[in-house]
Structures are given as C-alpha cells and as structure tokens.
Amino acid sequence: MKNYSIGIDLGGTKVLTALVNKQTGQVVNFVKKKTKKDKGTEKLVRKMIESIREVLEDSGMSISDIDSIGVGAAGQIDRENGIILGAPNLDCYNLNIKNLLNEHFNVPVFLGNDVEIATIGEMKFGAARDSDDFVCIFVGTGVGSSIVKDGKIMFGATGTAGEIGHIVVDLNGRPCACGAHGCLEAYASRSAIEKRIEGALKKGCRSCISDYLEPGKAITSGMIQKSIERKDDIVLQCVNEASEYLTCGIASVINFINPKLIILGGGLVDAVDYFYNKTIKQAYLKCLPVPARSIEFRKAELGDFSGVIGAAFLTCK
C-alpha cells in the first residue's frame, strides 16, 4: 500500500492542494490558489490539475507514488459518481470531478463535501480523535456541518445531511447563494459579515477596517480580528450579529441531535477568538438545560489543513 495521497479542499475562495502522508497525517507540501466563481468551471478544474502537478513536482514525487486523489467541495455532491451537483458559492453545477481528474492522472479519485473532509481530518488527527459522537460546524465563506454517530459520518437519504447553513432563520430574510431567503449562512458566515461591513462603509460609517482594505480584495478573517483588537464599533456589531444567529443554529442542533461534542472550525473561528468564545457562551444559554449540561465545545485543531488531510482518506461511501 502506498503511503501518500493528494488531498484537495475546494472552497468558496480557494483551492488548497496537499500531498499527505497517510501514516502520520503530515502535510508534506501544499499549494494554495484563489478561486473566483466568475472564471468558470473549466478554469477551476485547470487550477486543480495544475496544483496537483505542482505539489508533486515540489515534493520530488510522481503520480505513480500516489495512492489516490480526494476532493472536498463546498456544496451538494454525488459521492458514488464523483459529481458536484451544486456548489452555489462556486457557481458550479453537475461537474464530474472524478472523471476529469481520472483522465489526467489515472488514479482512484474520491469526492466528498468540504465539511465532511474536514471532519475526517479532525477525527483522525485533530480535535475529535478521541470521540465517535459529535458534530463539526465550519464557518467560512459559508456555514456547513457534518454529523458523526458511532464513529461514522451520517450522510442522510440523499447524501446531503448536515446543511446547517441552510436552516431558515428568517422567513422573509436576506437572499442566500442557494436561491432561498433567510438561511443561516446569509447571516452567520464570514461572507455575511463582509457584506454587512461593506454596506456600513458605503453608507459613510467610519471603521478602522478601512486601514486594511485593498481595492478589489475581500475582507478577510484576519482583518476582522485586527479591527476587533482595536475595538471597532462597526466590526463588533457585525460580528456580534453573526454570532447571535450562529448560536441559534447551534442551539437547534444541540436540542435536536443531542451530541456529546461540537467542534467549531473554519477561517473565521480560527482567526477570531472573540467570535468563537462569544458563540459557545451564548449557545449554552440558548439550548435546553439538560443537553446544555453535557455538551462540550472544542475548536478544530488542524486549521487550514483539516480538509486536505481528511480528503486524503476519502473512499467510496
């Protein structure tokens, strides 16, 4: 058995590709490329192919040294056939990743949801390595989750279980990338915070986050953290609102599923301790008292690499 696999985390803003040692979970080498949905799926696939070749070359290895390629995509997927059915944040639909990558590299290719692969990574080498009953919730461009029971991920009847970001929290609320209105993702994601801050700036509100902005560049979790350190009112208002909505979703999960553990991860959680601490404090208060007494919260440990590590261990469902 070969000891190395390629793991790819295909998110709303980046393609992160890594060579992973499957014995240790170590990321030997990685390549990160930005994604923009207006560039189309052909260029997206081309970036993935280029990234695989680049990470192998940088590592002094060839595709013959690789056991498999695993891909996690932000959206709804067909695991059996390796098809991204719908990824609104990438404007990507019915894309057969498995066939496209297999044509170029002729190794087994497996596809999973982006939070699913992050959950696998945390289960094997991160915050959940000692747990078999938990929920992972990741907050980034969107909000996603994965449910683990008896050490196995629950996929649901159509393989789409865990779409916490599309719980409706406001019946006539903000539009979501999925086409619906009032989804949790439209209120609690980093993208939602970014839109709220941008809206405030356009109205003439003053914020120190302007000191970090560059023309044409997105607001990052790091910028949000720096602004919170400076006690910026606008940023704090937007982050507090996102946290309040997220705690409603988390409390609903605790009441409905009653897990032992919830792991929170993603770029916003990693970078902004204030957001993480406020969220878990409020979640305890909002859920029912009996499950509140037994629920434990942990922050994901593997950071950006949880997805690529998990993707390296993907197999058929």
What does the model show?
This protein is α/β, with parallel strands linked by helices. The chain folds into two domains: 4-122 and 305-311, Nucleotidyltransferase, domain 5 (2-Layer Sandwich), CATH 3.30.420.40; 130-299, 2-Layer Sandwich (Nucleotidyltransferase, domain 5). It has eleven helices and 13 strands. The chain has helices at residues 41-58, 97-105, 114-125, 185-188, 190-202, 221-229, 233-257, 267-271, 273-286, 289-294, 305-311; strands at residues 4-10, 14-21, 27-34, 66-73, 76-78, 83-87, 92-96, 109-113, 134-139, 143-149, 152-153, 261-265, 296-299. The chain has a five-stranded mixed beta sheet with strand order 3-2-1-4-8, sandwiched between helices. A five-stranded mixed beta sheet has the order 11-10-9-12-13. A hairpin with a 3-residue loop joins strand 9 (134-139) and strand 10. Helix 7 (233-257) crosses helix 9.
Q: Tags for this entry?
A:
2 domains, 13 strands, Nucleotidyltransferase, domain 5, 11 helices, alpha/beta, 317 residues
Query: What is the highest CATH level, the class of the largest domain?
Result: Alpha Beta
Largest sheet: 5 strands, mixed
Q: If classified by CATH, what would the architecture of the largest domain be?
A: 2-Layer Sandwich
DSSP summary: helix tally: 11
Shape: globular
Class derived from helix and strand content: alpha/beta
**How much helix, percentage-wise, in residues?**
25-40%
Counted beta strands: 13
N- to C-terminal distance: 20 Å
Largest sheet: spatial strand order: 3-2-1-4-8
| CATH fold label of the largest domain | Nucleotidyltransferase, domain 5
Radius of gyration: 19 Å
**Model regions low in confidence, pLDDT < 50 over at least 5 residues:** none
Strand content: 15-25%
Number of domains: 2
Q: Say which CATH homologous superfamily of the largest domain is assigned.
A: ATPase, nucleotide binding domain
**Order of SSEs:** EEEHEEEEHEHEEEHHHHEHHHEH
Mean pLDDT, to the nearest integer, reads 92
